[in-house]
Amino acid sequence: MINVLTFILIFLINNTSNEPDNRIITTLKYSSKKYARPTVVNGVPAKWGQVPFIVSIKEQLLKVSKLKKMWSNICGGTIIGPIKVLTAAHCFERKNFYYKKHPQKLRVVAGEFLTELIHTGNTDTTDKCQWRKITKISIHPEFYFPENDIAVVLVNEPWIFKENVDYILPARRNIDYPLGCTAAGFGSIADAMNKQRISPVLLIGQMFLLSKKNCSSIWEMNMDKFICTYSYMSDISYGDSGGPLICKGTKDPTERQQKKNALLVGVVSGKNFDKTSIFTRVASFRQWIDKEAPTI
Question: Does the keyword Signal apply (predicted)?
């Protein structure tokens, strides 16, 4: 009987997925809101404490017992304060913004590298990870994908900062950043052009950034509110929307305010098969972020 139940559970996990989204950005200039949901491609598994500020926003997938449920990643996010997480607005767009209207149905998990987890969903803090419920989701009022693709999430209890759970400050100066930066996220490990294979763990990949001038030239429009990356080595693909783009040596004074010597410069937004991957440029929205949720 146990073997039968185990088989059923595995079948359900492998055959139950988030609502599919196959949109592709052609160009922003002529966009019809089409994009590919991103994830880190050619990344490596994260190490303990390497990216303590990243979280997984999870939805209930199925019940596995009377008290416990299977929770699955829908988006990444970044801790920017004791109860504040920064993510992408389009994470809450499907089903007519259902989760924006019902944030209590989602969970935010920090310190855990697994994409899918079995848990009660109750607020919980252990040595390994921390679970929080969402009390409020603020989406930029002018969001229309991929423009203004940014959101602030508030959780019900403060994070307990430690080696594997911590915050990072958002960038304030809108400048070109160093060529090599880092993205992290959960999701598939195949490029969006190929068959999807979900990574069971958090992945990290080095991103190679374009200047604002080059990004605008490629997209044929002003891209000052975006960060563009090359996609010939590491890239983003399906499943990691909302995750962080982290840079060091940015010359942004905010970076010197924290011991980590790193800065949150972008939020994973979308990609294009024949152009670049794009991140929402955090510095362009710092005033709105501070208004919605003042940082540390």
Answer: yes
The three-state DSSP-derived secondary structure of 32-89 is CCCCCCCCEECCEECCCCCCCCEEEEEEEEEECCCCCEEEEEEEEEEEEECCEEEECH
Domain ranges of the chain: 24-292
Which amino acid, 10?
I
Handedness of CA 108, 113, 119, 123 (dihedral sign): negative
- How do residues 73-93 score in pLDDT, each as one tens digit? 889 999 999 999 999 999 999
Please answer whether residues 108 and 134 qualify as being in contact, where contact means their C-beta atoms are separated by less than 8 angstroms.
yes
Closest CA to 65 of 4, 8, 118, 125: 118
Amino acid letter, residue 192: A
Q: Which CATH superfamily is domain 24-292 in?
A: Trypsin-like serine proteases (2.40.10.10)
What is the per-residue pLDDT across 183-233, written as a single tens digit (0 to 9) for each?
877 655 544 444 455 556 677 777 888 899 998 988 888 999 999 887 654
Residue 221 in tokens: 């429009």
